[in-house]
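My main concern about presentation is that the manuscript never shows what a single data entry looks like. An entry of this sort, consisting of the sequence and the corresponding backbone structure tokens, reads as follows:
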Amino acid sequence: MEDQVSRAMEMARRRTGLTAEEIARRLRPVLRLPEMPPGKEARSNWYGWRQNPRSVPAVALIAAARLAGTTVDALLSDVSAGPATSRIAELEREIAKLSAVLGQVQADLIEARTHAGLPWTSSTEADEGRAPDESRRMEKKSGTDES
């Protein structure tokens, strides 16, 4: 059970994208610990909590889950599935994020090329090694040109 709490805390940290230092600083007020002076490192708290999960109060786990935008139940069930299963789920989420970013970049590129008066080559034309003008000529020859 302690290992599960430790993994849940680490999963919450990864989901937030925060460093050990950043998450430790954010959790300190919830635990009613004094703020760390700017020059002093707080990450030792994080590593202490990870090495000795018995010292992690429930409120810290709840706060970590909230920072990660999830629930304690979801965190604990994700880590109880086992390291490989939770890693796969994490990678699937990352792929979904990257796909969304790629779609946006592609849309921005199409818009920029159109604005600059440059033709946009569809993936089919690129795969077949044809230029856009060549595709239009082929459509006219085959009678599929709708313009």
